[in-house]
Design goal:
Length: 198
């Protein structure tokens, strides 16, 4: 009985395959990919086939260290903190390269000054040429940013996701208005495609 029940659950899970829309980017446990709009391309300078373009997605962001602010179930500072990228409702999760950082960035305050965990994300994709709906997000922080991108056939493109951090709650110093800090969390991204803001 237990065996047949397990088979039924497995069949139901396998039957859930298909495209994943932007609304479900924040539910990373149920993401699936369908090889319809793009394919992973790990090698550089590979010939781009007819009808496709290359899209390199990169981001560098910082979070506080795990356990620094008590209970935190968002994965901040841990390896399973991920970046989600959806193109044409096909979604993939990017694992970051982690580096613990200490210190500051000089006299003038920088939003990434202080001790924390640096994540570097990168992925090279082979995408069908044309116009696509793009959604990028952080499932752990319930963030989704939706834009439209157009990629010319056989073009090589770079999409940079620049983090936008929340403002600090403490009183501001004279001459330092609207300070932001990675310790306050990320509120979104600025998307830059080939040097131009989207």
């Amino acid at each position: 009985m237990k065996k047949s029940m397990a088979l039924m659950v497995m069949a139901a899970v396998l039957g859930m395959g298909g495209c994943t829309g932007p609304a479900s980017l924040t539910h990373s446990a149920k993401l699936s990919t369908v090889p319809a709009c793009y394919q992973d391309e790990t090698e550089q300078n590979v010939a781009i086939p007819q009808g496709y373009a290359e899209l390199r997605v990169v981001s560098s962001l910082k979070t506080h260290l795990p356990g620094e602010f008590g209970l935190d179930d968002n994965g901040h500072g841990l390896p399973h903190y991920q970046l989600a990228v959806s193109i044409g409702e096909q979604t993939t999760l990017l694992q970051g390269e982690l580096l613990q950082e200490k210190g500051s960035y000089g006299f003038f305050r920088n939003a990434e000054s202080g001790e924390g965990m640096r994540y570097r994300f990168g992925k090279r994709l082979r995408v069908k040429a044309g116009t696509h709906k793009l959604v990028v997000g952080l499932p752990g922080d319930d963030i989704n940013i939706e834009k439209e991108i157009s990629l010319a056939e056989k073009s090589r493109n770079t999409l940079v996701l620049e983090p936008v951090y929340r403002l600090t709650a403490r009183a501001q110093r004279i001459g330092f208005y609207g300070e932001s800090s990675f310790n306050e969390g990320i509120k979104g991204f600025k998307l830059v495609l080939n040097g131009e803001a989207l």
